[in-house]
Write a structure and sequence with these properties.
Among the domains are: 47-291, no CATH class; 304-400, Immunoglobulins (Immunoglobulin-like). By secondary structure, it is mainly beta. 9% of the residues lie in helices and 42% in strands. The strands form 9 sheets. Strands 31, 36, 37, 40, 41, 42, 43, 46 and 49 form a 9-stranded antiparallel beta sheet that branches. Strands 1, 4, 10, 11, 13, 14 and 18 form a 7-stranded mixed beta sheet that branches.
Length: 692
């Protein structure tokens, strides 16, 4: 038998070798192309996540002026690739989060030509000396394995943006300028963290409050300005501030006050950018200092200022409280500081230490008729006194022999919570672009702080019978129905689904507090006809009744009507302002059943008459009285309800209507129902005011 070679197995071996080669090539291709592409996607998605987290960090920093507590923000510095069965990954990518310039004293934010309206605050904000505040940036620099074109993400001066080789792309709006509001938050501290895991950044308020200082240019040839170093050139800041730059300078109706944005080359890769504001308007300056990382520093006292009036009038034999406040360079209160009073014979105590609100209160005893000057200082007694230096305050006190008439040192409209006639119709960030909200300020004309407890609202327009912000998310001033920004504390109420008008809104948070002789800002968003889009509130009126309490628990209520975009040059369409101390039903048996009232009323054109009417639950008039007070004077009295046995202890429900008419015919009506005896409408928050 002859055997020949069997070659059938060779084809199997060749096939196996070829298949193995194909697998090697496929794996190599997967490792060389697919794995990097998948890892690139992982790195790209991580970069998007970090950009969002940097915006969260930005929000925490810019909210420091209204946020007294520390906030923590997590930033994922690196990422992890997905596990692979056979293919291999490079080491996990990391990133560097670091501060730049925050401890470099030469890198400043500078405010120039800003003079405070308050004469004592103007000792510090004098419009002559520039004020310098060290600040810088915080940036994230990725170190990816594949995504080579990833940007560096930077926060500085309220803006987050991406830095690419080809240019910059902003991720957020600027929050430094909003109409006449200038908000500056300096960044302090040192931070440098590089890792593949997450890092927590604590944003700590080092100088914080919701206080605003009203400033303007000191001369006719100067402009309030804010300068800072930035990695963005002035041209890009002009774009960021585009909706704030006034295309028609001098026209205040458009509520744009930035005259221009200038720039020049700065040190290294930085630009020196200056925002120049228009001359004439009064700006609301709010400042804060945020600390991150390590090495952030606290602020000490910078100046002493008045909270109550710098000029006081008091009757002989009476006493008057004088409240002062110690502030740091950011205009925020400093606690634990001793303030010395120079006149120990008439001032009690001779020295006092500031509380958490930075305030101290002295009591002046008016012994003899005449004009006296009382001095207060942060310096020890015996130090030469100069009333024009920031650490010293002089208060002029006029002691009179007769009783005072009128209201608040001759200013007939400065009663209670005095409306400043500055209401603006504005839009929030919804989709309709209709100015359906109202923003305005009022002044606490009392010499002590007040706390706002609730606000009554009555609309004078049929197409504005509902208040609803229609927005969710952060509880910011324009994203809730009612927000009150006091210089001591803020408060707000967010009503799910809104509320119909008229209504009374209690403050959910706070309460907002306003120190004596200081301003507060009120935000109302937005007025609507039912559930429809917002109503343009330009020229439309809303009556407000603000109930507030003093530190000793006394309750009062101020009522006034505000009109969107009202100007002092317009005809007087405002009804009187009224500040209520008491509208009380006293019932102590049929022999003593009456309504007692006291309130102060004021109007620019003067008061024509005031009528107080009381009716029973069947609308039968029980008694009434008409008075003709002067503007700013106190209206007080009582109405006997025992006439003809109209009221007895078993039928105590009465309604009180107070009608105020000024000399131009504008009318204000305040009314309420007292259901039980010995009840005060003011204490019960049962008073609501409107215009007919």
């Amino acid at each position: 038998m002859t055997f020949t070679g069997d070659e059938r197995a060779q084809s199997v071996q060749v096939g196996a070798v070829l298949l193995f080669g194909v697998l090697i090539i496929a794996f190599s291709s997967y490792q060389a192309f697919a794995v990097p592409e998948q890892n690139r996607e992982v790195e790209f998605n991580h970069n998007q996540q970090v950009q969002t987290q940097l915006q969260d960090l930005r929000n925490a920093i810019v909210s420091v002026p209204g946020q007294p507590s520390r906030q923590a923000v997590s930033v994922q510095l690196g990422t992890r690739y997905p596990s692979r069965l056979v293919a291999t990954n490079p080491g996990p990518p990391s990133g560097l989060l670091y501060t730049d310039g925050t401890n470099n004293e030469s890198q400043n934010l500078t405010v120039r030509n800003a003079e405070a309206r308050n004469p004592e605050t103007a000792d510090y904000w004098n419009g002559t000396a520039p004020r310098y505040y060290n600040t810088g940036a915080i940036a994230y620099k990725p170190e990816y394995n594949v995504y080579g074109g990833a940007p560096e993400t930077v926060y500085e001066h309220s803006v987050v943006y991406n830095r690419f080789r080809e240019g910059n792309i902003t991720l957020s709006e600027q929050a430094m300028v909003d109409g006449r509001d200038i908000t500056l938050v300096a960044l302090n501290g040192s931070l440098s963290r590089s890792a593949s895991d997450s890092a927590t950044v604590d944003v700590e308020p080092k100088s914080q409050s919701s206080r605003t200082v009203r400033v303007t240019n000191p001369t006719a040839t100067s402009n309030v300005s804010v300068s800072f170093l930035s990695r963005l050139p002035a041209s890009e800041w002009s774009v960021l501030l585009e909706d704030q730059i006034d295309p028609n300078p001098g026209n205040e109706s458009n509520e744009k006050y930035v005259a221009n944005v200038t720039g020049a080359e700065g040190p290294g890769s930085l630009y020196n950018v200056t925002i120049v504001f228009e001359r004439g308007p009064t700006y609301r300056l709010k400042m804060a200092k945020a600390g991150v990382g390590s090495g952030s520093t606290d602020e000490s006292e910078a100046y002493l200022t008045t909270v109550s009036d710098a000029d006081v009038t008091v009757k002989q034999g009476d006493s008057e409280e004088i409240t002062l406040e110690v502030r740091d360079a950011y205009n925020n209160p400093v606690s634990g500081v001793t303030v010395n009073g120079s006149d120990t014979g008439a001032v009690d105590p001779s020295k006092a230490t500031t509380g958490n609100d930075g305030q101290v209160t002295f009591e002046y005893q008016a012994d003899s008729v005449g004009t006296n000057q009382v001095n207060f200082s942060l310096q020890p007694l015996g130090t030469p006194f100069d009333g024009e230096t920031p650490e010293n305050v002089s208060v002029s006190i006029e002691v009179t022999a007769g009783s005072e008439t009128g209201g608040n040192n001759g200013n007939s409209e400065r009663i209670g919570l005095a409306y400043n006639n500055d209401a603006l119709a504005l839009d929030n960030d919804d989709d309709d672009n209709i100015p359906g909200g109202l923003e305005y300020t009022f002044t606490n004309t009392h010499n002590q702080r007040v706390a706002i407890t609730n606000v009554g609202l009555t609309s004078q327009s049929t197409d504005a019978d509902r208040l609803s912000d229609k927005l969710g998310g952060n509880y910011l001033p324009s994203r809730v129905e009612l927000y009150i920004e006091g210089n001591l504390n803020n408060g707000y109420t967010d009503i799910n689904g809104g509320t119909n008008l008229p209504t009374t809104i209690a403050l959910e948070t706070g309460p907002p507090q306003v120190s004596g002789q200081s301003d507060a800002i009120v935000y109302l968003y937005e007025f609507r006809p039912g559930l429809n889009d917002a109503t343009n509130m330009s020229g439309k009126s809303v009556t407000k009744t603000i109930t507030y309490t003093f530190p000793d628990g006394e309750t009062r209520a101020t009522a006034f009507t505000l009109t969107g975009d009202y100007s002092e040059s317009d005809p007087d369409i405002r009804p009187p302002i009224v500040d209520f101390g008491m509208v009380k039903h006293n019932s102590n048996g049929n022999s003593n059943d009456d309504i007692q009232f006291n309130f102060r009323v004021a109007d620019k054109s003067g008061i024509d008459r005031v009528n107080v009417t009381v009716t029973d639950k069947n609308d039968k008039e029980l008694n009434s009285v008409t008075k003709n007070p002067s503007s700013g004077s106190l209206v007080e009295g009582s109405l006997d309800l025992t006439k003809n046995n109209a009221v007895n202890n078993n039928n105590n429900q009465v309604s009180v209507t107070i009608t105020l008419i000024d000399n131009t015919g504008n009318t204000h009506i305040c009314e309420g129902t007292i259901a039980t005896s010995d009840t005060d409408l003011i204490d019960e928050r049962g008073l609501r005011c409107r215009t007919p």
